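Write out the bound-state structure for magnesium ion.
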Amino acid sequence: MMGLLAGLSVLQAIFIIGQAYALSNGITNLWNGEKLSGQVSWILLFFIFFMGRHLVILFRDQRLDNYAYDQSSQLRKKLLEKIFRVGPGIVQTQGTGNTATMALEGIEQVEEYIHLILSKMTNMMIIPWILLAAIFWLDWESGVVLIVVFPLIIIFMIILGYAAQAKADNQYKAFQLLSNHFIDSLRGIDTLKLFGLSKQYGNSIFSTSERFRKATMSTLRVAILSTFALDFFTTLSVAIVAVLLGLRLIEGNILLFPALTTLILAPEYFLPIRDFAGDYHATLDGKNAMTAVREILEEPEAATEATPLPEWQADSDLVLNNLSFSYQDFQALSAVSLSVKGNQKIGIIGMSGSGKSTLINLLSGFTTPASGEIFYDKQNLTSFKEQFWQKQLAYIPQNPYIFQLSLRENIAFYFPTATEEQIFEAIRIVGLDELVNELPEGIDTQIGEGARTLSGGQAQRIALARAFLDQERHVLLFDEPTAHLDIETEVELKEKMLPLMENKLVFFATHRLHWMQEMDYILVLDEGKVVEAGTLNELLAHEGAYLRLSQRLKEGA
Ligand SMILES: Nc1ncnc2c1ncn2[C@@H]1O[C@H](COP(=O)(O)OP(=O)(O)OP(=O)(O)O)[C@@H](O)[C@H]1O
Ligand SMILES: [Mg+2]
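---
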């Protein structure tokens, strides 16, 4: 692409020179008293060069459009793939709003950036020098004037460029903040309304957008100022050239033809740099967006070379050795060790905030442990971000996400080829039949955001149905699957869930004690540490952390 652009710039320069040459030849001949009819060929030549120049620009813009579009689509694809690979952590640190605007609007700005910067840069780097050579050949004195001002303009542009950059950075930060703030308030709109805070929050959005407005205005001020100053400078330089040429014409030191051609070429000499400077601030947004996208793309990833290991079986074993994990600088898990052999049910119990979800997220491969070792069938893994593992996993998060799809599609999520009977069986098991009867189009009713919203308990049951539908998944991760249910419903559901948990590897995080009776091994978590571990009988006999915890939980209940 750069080669093509450079070639087109050279072509443009040649056409510009040809244009000036034809025009001043025609005018000089007229001045010398020749007939107008004799100048038709010069005038025609002028128009041919003129057309040629603009056709080149048209062709270049078309090619660049496609190129910029391709590049930005690829970038968007890479960005989205990266986000999906790295997982939810990155969205959490960047903010949902910011991530969404980055992937949509940011990439568009990058497209514009590629388009503008490439064409203007090559023009600026090539055209002035060819024109300068022509001017030197015509009249070296004017060439000297033009060459002297050029570095001055460049220095001046660099200074203003820095100023604009600082302003644009500021503007981009404000923009990111605004995106996050806006999505945040949309999501929290019910909370805001309930607490009567929507007015106050509205004011805070107002001040965020004010900040953005001010940042934008000050970027524009610098941009307009620099455009004005540059135009002033270049016009002044052209004027100097014109005055000098005029004086020499009067004194008879120069002929009309070279003087006129030089004068026509002088503004063209400055045009590319003015073009570049005029759009420079417009490209800064794109540049910032590109940097932000790059930052995400360069985010380190755990090596995910596929380790094709066998599926979990009755004689498989898994060893966690001193795993720890931190959110930024908060150590949420430290030195968690566990050894599992075959299809066991591992209970993870602890007070709220003790690190249960963090451990489940680690096991699901959403996050990567900061230190520690994992051995799956004696094979050392750095994390659970492994295809073979995630393929056999069914994960029921604490707050399951319901996609804006039909109930059927939401349930058949892990297992899209499920038959009607299988889906209805799963619905029956988790007790969603009442809901299905109530929905206008049965299991084909659209649910999720923008459609019929479900209660927290219903959402959890859908997540459970998802997990139970695909019996091929041998590893189940539960994160408080019954937290949104009342105790009667929970007991009823438990009866149905238990048989489905047989012959599987189950990790079950909860703070409901009664589940522990069904578990083969229990980890008691407190402040990110395993404070006690063993079978229920061992823990009861030990009279330690588990008993204290159950006391506290019972008092709480
Ligand atoms: N994204 C995050 N960034 C920083 N700290 C976090 C993040 N997520 C969780 N934490 C902190 O890590 C600790 C453990 O959180 P975790 O969600 O694992 O607890 P939990 O045992 O699942 O609690 P609960 O029973 O309330 O679901 C908490 O102190 C929490 O504040
Ligand atoms: Mg939790």
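---
The mean pLDDT is 88.
Residues 356-357, 398, 479-480 surround magnesium ion (ligand 2) (CB under 6 Å).
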